[in-house]
């Protein structure tokens, strides 16, 4: 299957997803992926989505050396995906799409996961893949070694043509749709945070996010699910941010107060890098008005524009994360995978 298209033949859509949402789910270069922590707080980060070859799940991946997203999804499989960024696509007025689904974590075959990631990246992000020759990629296994998260949609909410002020449409999975199950969790504890932002002044990062990245996604918690939605008319407050959010669904109401995550991301039309920032805190809301109170900033994985700056950032990440690779492979009783060209053993 090409990552640039998906046939709408009913036989190629066994889960019965709405035809209107399939093109952006298949072609989007990024989506916002939301999980819940042990304490029920949402954490949301941008990831590249891929429609599974079986057309029954939407899949994302995270690095083996920073498995927190996968560990959260395995512990609590209630996750969400938000498709709200049409940059780099050839779709005219695509919908904004929210997917609530059940996650299945795949890390029982790290070599297959790595091969799969390289192949899907070559198909979907060829410009980014041309940034480094193969001998360099082979030396960066810490990045290419992957855990996959396969999300079975149970509810899809979408706003036609991205018109967030209008009532959204909703699809619910038919009876008989069975979410996939995760691979068994590896023994031992996952590594802790790889970046320290203790004592960080979040306000400077907030100003940069508003000025350079643009309107974010806010994720709140409703009925045990993380629910990410776009924020518009964003403005800074002394204690955080304020803005507007769309109506989601009568059964998915924003609580008067909820733990929340505010996440920013952007990339150029030709995807060769990305910018992002995220903050956790709580929201107070009434109807479509949002007030987000910041508690702290989260560390991010930013790849700036410009080959030299991007390479410098990547090398810095490798110095911090590379030592985790063998540790995480040993936890899974597997050898360190190799970065291989597709169809080459």
Explain the overall architecture.
The chain has 345 residues and is an alpha+beta fold. The chain has a single domain (10-331), classed as Electron Transport, Fmn-binding Protein, Chain A (Pnp Oxidase, Chain A, Roll). The chain has helices at residues 22-27, 68-75, 110-124, 126-129, 134-138, 141-144, 202-213, 307-321, 324-331, and strands spanning 31-36, 42-47, 50-51, 58-63, 78-83, 96-106, 146-159, 169-172, 217-222, 225-230, 232-237, 240-244, 257-266, 275-286, 289-298. Strands 1, 2, 3, 4, 5, 6, 7 and 8 form an eight-stranded antiparallel sheet that branches. The protein has a seven-stranded antiparallel sheet with strand order 10-9-13-14-15-12-11. Strand 9 (217-222) and strand 10 (225-230) form a beta hairpin.
Structural class: alpha+beta
Uncertain segments:
1-8
How many extended strands?
15
The major sheet is characterized as: 8 strands, antiparallel
Cα distance, first to last residue?
21 Å
CATH topology: Pnp Oxidase, Chain A
What's the rounded overall pLDDT mean? 85
The CATH level-2 architecture is identified as Roll
Helix content, binned percent: 10-25%
CA-based shape: globular
Number of domains: 1
